[in-house]
Write a structure and sequence with these properties.
The chain is of the alpha/beta class and 275 residues long. It has eight helices and eight strands, in the order H-H-H-E-H-E-H-E-H-E-H-E-H-E-E-E. Strands 1-2-3-4-5-6-7-8 form an eight-stranded mixed barrel, surrounded by six helices.
Length: 275
């Protein structure tokens, strides 16, 4: 009798162990595959900033320490990717080459520094999508004070259409005299705020492109854009944010322009890394 009792408890103990192991395995797969959603979500006109917001949200809401850590690691791996930004139009075959090189996104100029839409932008975005590049954003080079902020945003959107994910404001020196930034940094900060307000009024998802030097030279201590995603420039050839120093109210960037005119697939594109 004692032998059968021993056998019974032995089988019962291993059965409980099996159930516990299965439970842990299911928890692992649940959090892992949930965290992988990020950049692979299927949407028509997605912005890189959408992925960035999901990443921050995932990092801040874990209930179980181990599961949260796994989710953060998986999300970072899922969202880290490369792409490029361009100011000229290229063919679908060129973008197919870029896609093979690993590009997951393209940022196309949609507005010139002299205050007019880039007429090549709509076709460029169509070619990029046809080549299979899933994320397509635009960048807007402001004509500072040469035109009202609201008219610039409306003109840009009407010209390119609602085919982009995000609009990035390009904050750097404008050499066109009628569109140049002013010497008064407070006025420049106010004008950028007007651009952002106009974007919000039109339902546009926005981000800021700037280097620390350009931002401080043009905007000074302005923090009007700090609620938006930051794409910063530092041509050190490295896909890392370890070189980033806070400015403009940003403590963490969303994207880095780490190479200038790198010549992917025969085009003089800049190299960008998003994580």
């Amino acid at each position: 009798i004692s032998y059968f009792y021993f056998l019974y408890y032995y089988i019962f103990f291993y059965f409980l162990s099996f159930l516990y192991s299965l439970f842990l395995l299911l928890c692992f797969f649940f959090f892992f595959f949930q965290a992988e959603d990020g950049i692979r979500d299927a949407q028509e006109s997605r912005g890189l900033g959408d992925v960035y917001k999901r990443q921050v949200s995932t990092q801040s809401t874990g209930a179980v320490a181990l599961a949260s850590t796994l989710a953060v690691i998986a999300t970072t791996v899922a969202t880290a990717t490369i792409g490029g930004d361009i100011s000229q139009s290229f063919s679908t075959s060129t973008f197919e080459c870029c896609r093979k090189e690993g590009w997951d996104f393209l940022i196309t100029r949609s507005y010139h520094d002299y205050g007019a839409p880039d007429v090549n932008a709509p076709q460029t975005i169509r070619n990029s999508k046809a080549a299979g590049i899933p994320y397509n954003d635009i960048y807007h080079f402001p004509c500072s004070f040469g035109q009202s902020a609201s008219s610039q945003i409306s003109s840009d959107i009407n010209a390119v259409g609602r085919v982009f994910g995000m609009m990035w404001f390009d904050i750097e020196t404008n050499t066109v005299s009628k569109c140049a930034w002013r010497s008064d940094k407070n006025e420049n900060c106010q004008f950028l705020g007007e651009l952002i307000s106009a974007g919000h009024a039109n339902g546009v998802k926005m981000g800021i492109y700037a280097s620390s030097y350009m931002w401080e030279s043009i905007m000074g201590s302005c923090t009007v854009g700090s609620s938006l995603a930051l794409w910063y420039a530092h041509y050190d050839g490295r896909q890392t944010f370890s070189d980033f120093s806070p400015f403009g109210g940003w403590s963490r960037p969303a994207m880095k322009q780490y190479g200038d005119a790198v010549g992917y697939c025969g085009i003089n594109s800049d190299a960008d890394w998003y994580a």
